[in-house]
Structures are given as C-alpha cells and as structure tokens.
Amino acid sequence: MVHESPCARVRSVSRANRSGAHFEQAASAEHRTERAVSARSANAGPKTEREEQPSSTLPRRQLGRHLRDWRAQAGLTIAEASRLMEWGASTLQRLEKGQADRIRTIDVRALCRIYGIPDAMAEGLTGLAQQAAVKSWWHAYGDLIPETFEIYVGLEAWAAKLTAYQSEVMLGQLQTADYARALIRLGGSQDEQEVQRRVQLRMQRQALLTRPVAPANLDVVLDESVLRRTVGGARVMAAQLRHLADLSTRPNLTLRILPFTAGIPLGDATGPFTVLDFGADGRGQPVEPPVVYVEGFTGDLYLERPADVRRYHLAHERLRRCALDIQASRHLLRQLAKEYVHE
Q1: I want to staple 279 with a disulfide (CB 3.0 to 4.6 A). Which of 22, 119, 160, 185 is the partner?
Q2: For residue 25, pLDDT beyond 80
Q3: Do residue 213 and residue 263 come from a single domain?
Q4: Taking the alpha carbons of 65, 68, 71, 73 in that order, is the dihedral positive or negative?
Q5: What is the DSSP letter of 164?
Q6: Number of domains in the chain
Q7: Last residue of a domain, one of 84, 115, 132
Q8: pLDDT one-digit tens code per residue, 45-89
Q9: Contact partners, residue 79, CB within 8 Å, separation at least 6
Q10: For residue 202, how many other CB atoms are within 10 A of its CB?
Q11: Claim to verify: residue 176 and residue 76 sit in the same structural domain
Q12: Per-residue pLDDT averaged across 268-272, rounded?
C-alpha cells in the first residue's frame, strides 16, 4: 500500500530551493559549532568527581540568571561582586551561567545581601540553590552517559513539551526495552550488566511522558526509514511498532510518520533534533528559554538563540505538513508490525 504525503501534492520547486539554501547555511554554522564543541570535549580529558556536570541543570540556570540580573541592578561588575565575596571572577561567572560544580546556600545568602535582594526573593533563590544541589536519578549512570548528554537528560526531565524529529532510529522516549537493548549492543556494549543499566536508564527517561501528574507533551515526526530499519530482528520490530501505535493514542503524544513519498521536505538532509520547551509561569512568561538539542556522533549541540529555536520550530512544522496524519500514521504502524510478524 502506497501512502502519499500531502507534501508530495503541493511542493513547489522554488520553495524547496529557498528552504534548501536557508537550511544549508544553518547546517554549515551548526557543523562548525559542533566541531568546536567536540574538540573542546576531546581536549578536556576525563572528568573527576569534582568536575561532574550539575545534577539538576534547570534550577542552576534559573538561579544563575536571577543572580546575574540582581547583580546588574545593583550596579556591580563581576569583578566587583567577586571581590566582595573573596572569589575569583571565574567562580561567579560559572555560578551565573549555571555551571557551578557546587552551590552553597551560605554563598547565595551572602550574594543576596550584597545585591540588596528582598527577603522573599532571597528565600526563593536559596530554595533554588538547595534544589540544584540534589543528585537526580540519572547520576547513578554518569559513568555510562556521554558528558554532553548529561546536560540533555537534565533539561529533558524538566521539559513541559518536546518537539522532535527522528530520521534514523527510534526516539529514546518511545523505545521498548528489547529495541533499546538491541541498539545498545549494536553500539559496542557487550557487558550484560552495562547493557542492562543503559536499558534501565532509557526506560526511566520515558516516565516524563507517563507520569500521573503533569506529563510532558511530545510532538514527534518519525521518518519512515525508522520503521523499516530492522533493529533486533523482526519480532523486536513488530513489538516496537505495536508499542508506538498504542502510545500514539495518549492525549499528550502526537506521532506522525514522514513517508518516503514526501521526498526531502526541507530541500536538504535533516538530522534528528529535539526542541525542549519548559512551560510558562503564572504571568505567562517562559519558565526557561526553549532549547534545541541536536544529536551528534562525537558531540551534541545545544542552541538557545531565539532565531535558532524559531528555525527548528519552522522545520518541524514543515515536516509535520508533509507527514501522514495521525490516523494514517497509526494505521501504517500496525500494518508494518503485521508484516514483520509474517517475515
């Protein structure tokens, strides 16, 4: 059965050329940045316990941003504030960027006094500092997770919405244990204990979609090649596709398949990416700026500039328009699952 995408009927050559040039420029910039990130990671050497990434990324970033704003309101430079704290300037810079190795509440209180922060706000900042110091569940797997991925897991756990595209393998949050296990073994992990720990980590990450209180929303487009590329054998694939079809009935999950007939919707090859949004506060302001996570083989890329975030949201919207609708996507999943069973 051939599924024709809406995109195949309405594509314009000129529009494809324009979008292709647009995304080619963006991809070139991303590749340069990714090479720089990878080079820095390669030269950094192994991490010591003191150099581990923060256990809870979002509270640290929130705390750092508030402290930076209050310092500016107090009319102090980083050098001046650091001198009053008897710190080196780099210590305060790391705190303001959410990259501090350790955050002490006594230091946060001292900064609040220096900046003249009101008591109610100071109490909130102290609470953020206490929250940032708590080790989260994924740190038990720190020896198995790439350094840059720890950042993503921290962001993902706090996300209110994930907007994703996968072009090659199943999105981690949607994988069955057997699919994940087969994929991990293909990656070179042979020790059974290590494999099992990695599988458990991946399964725990899925809780953000199924937790009873405020589950995250997921809007994902999967390329048809993800469904047809066999991982773990026909039986594993059949179970994986049935699992996908069942998950697609959840109210917080929107899943669409981009069929081969859609061609190249963006005019250029597009790798996997995820846009993380963190919701809004009581005043309707974003709790945290959205972040784009672009997966890489030797290093991962994080983009926070509003222009970059908009570019990826637009890319996802174009992919959605070219994909099958929700019902047709679910039908294709169940159809392919039956085909795997009969192989």
Answers
A1: 160
A2: no
A3: yes
A4: negative
A5: E
A6: 2
A7: 132
A8: 444 333 344 444 567 887 898 999 999 999 999 999 999 999 999
A9: 89
A10: 20
A11: no
A12: 89
